[in-house]
Amino acid sequence: MKAGVVVFPGSNCDRDLADSFQRFGASVQLIWHKESSLPSGLDIIGVPGGFSFGDYLRCGAIAANSPICRSLITFGESGGYILGICNGFQILTETGLLPGALIQNNGLKFLGKTVDLRVETTDSVFTYRYRKNQLIAVPIAHHEGNYTVAEDDLAVLRDQDRVAFSYSNNPNGSVDDIAGILSSNRRILGMMPHPERAVDALTGVPDCQPFFAGLVAGLLSD
Amino acid sequence: MKAQVIVRLKDGVLDPQGEAVNRALIGLGYDTISSVRQGKLIELELDETDPVQAETKLKNMCEKLLANTVIENYTIDIAK
């Protein structure tokens, strides 16, 4: 299984994400944002957290218009798997690959802590190793994590079972407690919490080992 | 040619910054304020002489980058 991780100026979770793919058996290639084409044969592309381009203008807006993102959009639109975490989720909404937007936390503060997430659907390569409604502990670290989406788009997300994770105790004001959503083909996941920070008990919590183990195994057999 | 683009949050989109400014102003004694919404003003200089072309270009810039039309509206003002 071959994963690519896109690196923007200001990305700071790229290596953690690469490590998370690797420790469950994937080979990983880091991809600099100025590349205009993607390496061939990628099974999934990770868009990592951080502060791409200093969060100038809007979080993710400038990254979403960088050369690599034109290829990323084509990759996603042609059925490729994409995982966007935190700033990566913001970038995916800015590209239009996922609906909605991430605005400032309702409490105006940067939040850095571990929170409980509820697994809302097991129908995805990212979540099939959990039970529906299972609670998992995952760190959050964001200032603009307040998910907002037009009412009709929200209804579509609900109807199509595309909310992947929700907060059990909403920290940021996100509509319907949403922490992560899937694309309509269920192959693109955007989420504010950091699964790549939850793979080793030594550095916190191990609750996302099934996330990455399942992802690597699922894409190997895909 | 100079232009100004104003980007505003759409009605109904929560504006925590605006609310905090509102509370601070009330704290200063300006207790007749009922709402504060905060936006962005972007000033541009264009090498363009045709205002119609300039407007078209600015509209594209707003749609592609300057505004996120999921949550924001924009207005374009070209200095004559």
Please give a quick description of this structure:
Chain A contains 5 helices and 11 strands; from the N terminus they run βαββαβαββββαβββα. Chain A is an alpha/beta fold and 222 residues long. In chain B, 35% of the residues lie in helices and 26% in strands.
Describe this structure in words.
The complex is a heterodimer of chains A (222) and B (80). In chain A, helix 2 (67-77) links the parallel strand 3 (44-47) and strand 4 (81-85). In chain A, the strands form two sheets. Chain A has a nine-stranded mixed beta sheet with strand order 2-1-3-4-11-10-9-6-7, sandwiched between helices. In chain A, strands 5-8 form a two-stranded antiparallel sheet. In chain A, 23% of the residues lie in helices and 26% in strands. Chain A starts with a strand and ends with a helix. The model of chain A has no long low-confidence stretch (mean pLDDT 97). Chain A has a single domain (2-220), classed as 3-Layer(aba) Sandwich (Rossmann fold), CATH 3.40.50. Chain A is α/β, with parallel strands linked by helices and 222 residues long. Chain B has 80 residues and is α+β, with helices and mostly antiparallel strands. Helix content of chain B is 35%, strand content 26%. The model of chain B has no long low-confidence stretch (mean pLDDT 94). Chain A binds chain B through residues 57-58, 61-62, 65, 93-94, 99-101, 103-108, 146, 148-150, 173, and chain B through 13-14, 16-17, 20, 64-66, 68, 70-71.
